[in-house]
Amino acid sequence: MNQSVLTRPFLRWLWLVLCWPLLVQAAEPLPSWQDGPSRRAIVEFVRTVTAKGSKGYVAPAARIAVFDNDGTLWSEQPLYFQMLFALAEVKRLAPQHPEWTTQQPFKAVLENDIQTLAGSGNEGWLKIVYATHTGISTQAFLTNVRSWMAKAVHPKTHKPYTEMVYQPMLELLAYLRANGFKTYIVSGGEVEFMRAWAEKVYGIPPEQVIGTTFFGEYQYNKGKPVVMRLPKLAQNDDGPGKPVSIDAVIGRRPIFAFGNSDGDQQMLQWTAAGTGKRFMGLVHHTDAQREWAYDRDSKVGKLDKALDQALAEHWTVVDMAKEWRHIFPADTQ
Amino acid sequence: MNQSVLTRPFLRWLWLVLCWPLLVQAAEPLPSWQDGPSRRAIVEFVRTVTAKGSKGYVAPAARIAVFDNDGTLWSEQPLYFQMLFALAEVKRLAPQHPEWTTQQPFKAVLENDIQTLAGSGNEGWLKIVYATHTGISTQAFLTNVRSWMAKAVHPKTHKPYTEMVYQPMLELLAYLRANGFKTYIVSGGEVEFMRAWAEKVYGIPPEQVIGTTFFGEYQYNKGKPVVMRLPKLAQNDDGPGKPVSIDAVIGRRPIFAFGNSDGDQQMLQWTAAGTGKRFMGLVHHTDAQREWAYDRDSKVGKLDKALDQALAEHWTVVDMAKEWRHIFPADTQ
After folding, report:
1. Which positions in chain B touch A216 (Cβ < 8 Å)?
2. CB distance B225–A270 less than 8 Å?
């Protein structure tokens, strides 16, 4: 009896000392976020909507959170990664298309002629996208994306693209899900391009990935049916297309939205216009050292009108350089 | 002490006797299904895919079940209920459209001229659908559907339409969800028409309702944004359109599919063609007494080619008259 009286408090004390760092970490969400205004706004919002009996309480089923992808969940410089995939695919497929050696914009891609490529405009890009993203089945396309993803590295950082996701945003996705939110991607990127890796990298299942889509065609194929991807845009999930997609696919208004560019402005407006407590956030790329710094004049991920509205309406604007302790998962090691 | 020895077993016995019917019901799923081949096939399938360690085990995330709506979850005679809604809306809206008194097919609707209406074909129907389903915001349309649903009754049964859902299918939906399935509607019906009541009636949330869609347009509206419904079909979610929609919205192949007509054949083929254990089911309307009897020659819900394939490939065909103890929820009382 005497022994247990002496040892029990000591053991409890020892256990606390040893486990303290773990306990603190578990208690503090979003460890890669500085204790700045953005982190505080997120935590405050989540506490309010999850506090049963509070005025701002939202039932779990209505806790819909939407995230842009390029520039919000992973990097988008010097070019959207999906475009880098498309360029690599043109080179991989070139032997099957001898006509491309004389046909623009393919010729420019094969000759690394950036200037001609840039001059080919949206129409040129669409030709490249159709040639590399359509005319095959969804299954075959997913395989192509995964093959590329497994080997390709970023031209500047030399990291695999799936390691160029933002650690603070991975923590935010997990934090929201732990609080009963359903997390969605709503991106201008093509939907299957993202589905090929989004579950593994972000923990977001295919049915919660919304993106730009092509029309599809069912082919029975003697009992081995496929859905073929047609070279025709069905929905351009960018700018005003984002609330339209959210309405069509989710059928309810998000209470939480995060973007980083003018292409996300309408999604944030749509989220803001609902009743009850709402969270609208923008990632502001201010970190030329650790990532990139760009906003109003950028060709990729331009942030101008959405920034004006965010400042005017007191949406959360994340200063990446000041508010993120780490940028990429590798930085935490 | 003596008292408790006497009373405790007696109390336990009394409790068992009183609660026995409830216990039996809880232990036996699908009480409105006769112990026939369809019920056995369903239970056997669910047991196999949920038995951890079994060869046929499927992880919960991949337990996707899809259901047609008209004729599978609720009745569809003498006409799809959505069409009855559209006809009622033409009458409600007529005062705002004096031109309809001379314009077909609206004139025929207002004059109850069934023959002219039937002769107006798909083109005529599309005019009626556009006039009653588009040109307004999603929110306004949902309100219209709910207003109609709250008062309208079926021309033959005089029941509200939401009471013409099939009790055995409600039990099946609940049984699948209790076993970790995600239940989806995949219907030729317009998506918002179904979302207006599907959660309340079927327990299926808006994001799990897939249907025919119109293109949408975002309007900022001075800070009160709306998504306007445009008179242009985006996706016709019928026949070969069903696997295309499933691929676009869910992004994974169902393991369980239920339909009732040739419009579901491709969805069932698509489900059947995946690897591992699969369940394909058809509701066969064989019950002229309690519901309707129709198949190969029916104008609504024709079941011909899909029935041939179901018989050839041993899909489950539910004989409504023989296998369903009750049809509608009211029948169980």
Report:
1. 244, 247-248
2. yes
C-alpha closest to that of A192 among B58, B250, B190? B250
CB-CB under 8 Å, B217 with A225: no
pLDDT for res A136:
98
Phi, psi of A210 (to 5 degrees): -115, 135
Q: With CB atoms and an 8 Å threshold, state whether A251 touches B227.
A: no
Other Cβ atoms within 10 Å of A239 Cβ, number: 18
> Is residue B189 pLDDT above 60, yes or no?
yes
Amino acid at B256: F
Can you read off the two tokens belonging to residue B262? Answer: 């040739």
Assess whether the previous peptide bond of A206 is cis (omega < 30° from 0): no
A319 has pLDDT over 90: yes
- What does the alpha-carbon distance between residue A139 and residue A145 come to, in Å, rounded to a whole number? 10
Provide the sign of the torsion angle of the four alpha carbons A202, A205, A206, A210, taken in this order. negative
Task: Tally the domains of chain B.
Answer: 1
Domain around B245? 31-332
Q: Which residues contact A259 (CB under 8 A, 6 or more apart)?
A: A67, A68, A72, A265, A267, A268, A281, A282, A283, A306
ipTM over 0.95: no
Counting residues of chain B whose pLDDT is more than 90, the rounded percentage is: 89
Q: Under an 8 A CB cutoff, do A225 and B252 touch? A: no
Chain A residues whose beta carbon lies within 8 Å of the beta carbon of residue B270: 218, 225
- Closest Cα in chain A to B233: A234
Max intra-chain CA distance, chain A:
92
Residues A148, A141: Cα–Cα separation, whole Å: 11
CATH code: domain of residue B261: 3.40.50.1000
Give phi and psi for A261, each to the nearest 5. -145, 175
Phi and psi dihedrals of A104, rounded to 5?
-85, 150
**Cα dist from B218 to A166, A238, B137, B138, whole Å:** 30, 11, 9, 11
pLDDT digit string (tens) for B238-281?
Answer: 999 999 999 999 999 999 999 999 999 999 999 999 999 999 99
For the record, the structure tokens of B54 come out as 């079994």
Which DSSP symbol is given to A324? Answer: B
Residue among B142, B184, B244 with most chain A CBs within 10 A, to mutate: B244
- Name the closest residue on chain A to residue B246, using Cα atoms: A207
DSSP state of A94: G
Best interface-test mutation with B: which of A247, A267, A309 has the largest number of B CBs within 10 A?
A247
* A273 to chain B: closest CA residue: B224
DSSP 8-state secondary structure symbol assigned to residue B136? S
Average pLDDT, chain A: 94
| Residues of chain B found within 8 Å of residue A270, distances taken between Cβ atoms | 218, 225
A218: nearest CA in chain B? B240
